[in-house]
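Handoff note, outgoing to incoming analyst
You'll be picking up this chain. Sequence as last confirmed:
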Amino acid sequence: QVQVVESGGGLVQAGGSLRLSCAASGRTFSSYAMGWFRQAQGKERQFVAAITWSGSSTYYTDSVNGRFTISRDNAKNTLYLQMNSLQPDDTAVYYCAAVYLRGSTWQSLFDSWGQGTQVTVSS
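Most recent structure output, in case you need it:
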């Protein structure tokens, strides 16, 4: 129900940085917790980071904690993922989605996904 368009991916060298953006449509963006997921070639889609509706609380998977920062601008209906100290293992297609917390696991609220944005990190 929340339509999203991811952008900002690209090719960077190890140790470099990228800032991903997720533009969402509609007036209800601020009503949802939002998150980032990624899927590497041949692997399952995995949770990366989440942020509550107010932006006051953030959550990260262990592999990106300390390197990535999730943020949101509700006035602009935009979600961000600042990625620093990128590593080759970060190479994946990154997706954003409305999320909810089921137990200790963040999951997408809706079944549909956007096209994602490709992040490639060279060694």
